[in-house]
Amino acid sequence: MPAHFRVKVDPNLCKSCELCIAVCPKKIMVISDQKNDLGFRLALCTDHSACTGCMACALVCPDVAIEIIRTE
Amino acid sequence: MSEKIIFTRTEGLKPAATTYCPGCGHGVAHRILAEAVAEAKALERTVAVAPVGCAVYGYDYWNFDTTEAAHGRTPAVATAIKRVLPDRLVICYQGDGDMASIGMAEIVHAANRGEKFTVIFINNANYGMTGGQMAPTTLIGQKTATTPYGRTSEEAGYPMKMAEFLAQLPGVKYAARGALHKPGLIRTAKSYIKRAFEIQEAKAGFSIVELLSICPANWGLSPLESVQKLEELMLPIYPLGLIKDEGPKKEGA
Q1: Domain A4-71, what fold?
Q2: Which residues from chain A sit within 8 angstroms of residue B182, using beta carbons?
Q3: Distance CA B185, CA B179 (A)
Q4: Which pTM was predicted?
């Protein structure tokens, strides 16, 4: 079974800076309508099956809000 | 089915949200610094000295001992800590207003004495916390709160290249410049920090890692526009790469 990846964004940390969206090579990160307590709209991965686990989003996230989980 | 977390928050960072503006480079700088300390297994024997500036709350974010210094005097405080406790990993974290302007005397003399600590220097081409005034690193033509028509060399001189400037001093054994706006460059920047720690642990001398960072709030741009501006305008003035490495050779190298 091939490996699958899941991108988990911490709703308390995301500040909606959109840097993860720009670096994602698969263009699967978006800004959702869901807001956190600070009033920022949260980043979200729309298609986990397309994620290659490259970690680009997590590396550029200034708030270390992204966790990546590999399943196989 | 087995699950494995391949990227998560390092134990070098406290589980706290930062007060930084969205997109601010300090967040990434904090993370790679904290990861480098954790990977050096030095969390229990590290003392960082936070600057005056946006990163003044460093002690709320890093999971190692951090103290605070008067504006620009971070290297003076770090000198004392390293001399009294030579077995500690001592880190100065400074911004460009803090280091290149107010604390210029302290940094130059600490570097010239070859003090055995590591300086992480965040260059975002302006004073961040006080509202985006001109710093010595501000680019020619850059509009800031105190240069509303753009910085001119006649009036305010030229952008200060701190890493190259300090690298001339014999006490400085390591100088490098990285950037924080792309995944690959972030990895490289972290490798610079790790090498700087090796130089410090080998008691070779002073080490500095300059990191180019965006400041979207004070540049008046979105984080993505700021990344573009950094690439277009800062990289030609502040070239990335290793400037000086006179430390002991790496094992196996």
Answers
A1: Alpha-Beta Plaits (3.30.70)
A2: 23, 60
A3: 6
A4: 0.96
